[in-house]
């Protein structure tokens, strides 16, 4: 794979316990918070402050109890692997598929099932956490709207299973605009006006890009993957969105979008 930042996110080099400090402690705290989605009845959410204090220790003990392990309050490399298991499952499992398009859909569904999501500290500190860093080549923070990072990670994971690179059809980027403009130059970008006339131009596995039609210059502001096409409707899996379909949300969601009502272009992955 080209996008390999995920490898650092699933590993811990040393044991952490009460009194430990630093970024590795924050990584533990991040995974405790993310695992709160897997275990909604267990108190796991804690502050991301890089300080392994009594609250973090209690959350660790609660996680150990939830997965039926002895309650030590210490995070060994083995326990960290259990904390980060959703990411390892999403990135390392290779679903059987007969072609790249089917692989794209199955891998995207896998990331969706693992509840891929970002973390927030406050309104100014968003787009954080191991999933975001994995999708965005180690980067995180408010400027990094990670929808394209998610799309390219899935394409990378699927293509690499066939010994190919997603960069043969698009640049390695985190920008919707760069992705769309490259599609225009290569002839891969299917304009919304053409799509509205012939929905067969969009196929499962392709990338959609939402475009703002306001102003003199096109502005693409959100991207995702198409999982099915039926009439005027696309079913999608997309990152950095929310239940309302926003372009700077919190997680990976499956959605339904009507391309007759939205200015939505399609980037074809044919030949990947």
UniProtKB/TrEMBL annotation:
<protein>
    <submittedName>
        <fullName>Peptidoglycan-binding protein</fullName>
    </submittedName>
</protein>
<feature type="domain" description="Peptidoglycan binding-like">
    <location>
        <begin position="25"/>
        <end position="83"/>
    </location>
</feature>
<dbReference type="Pfam" id="PF01471">
    <property type="entry name" value="PG_binding_1"/>
</dbReference>
<dbReference type="InterPro" id="IPR036366">
    <property type="entry name" value="PGBDSf"/>
</dbReference>
<dbReference type="InterPro" id="IPR002477">
    <property type="entry name" value="Peptidoglycan-bd-like"/>
</dbReference>
<dbReference type="InterPro" id="IPR036365">
    <property type="entry name" value="PGBD-like_sf"/>
</dbReference>
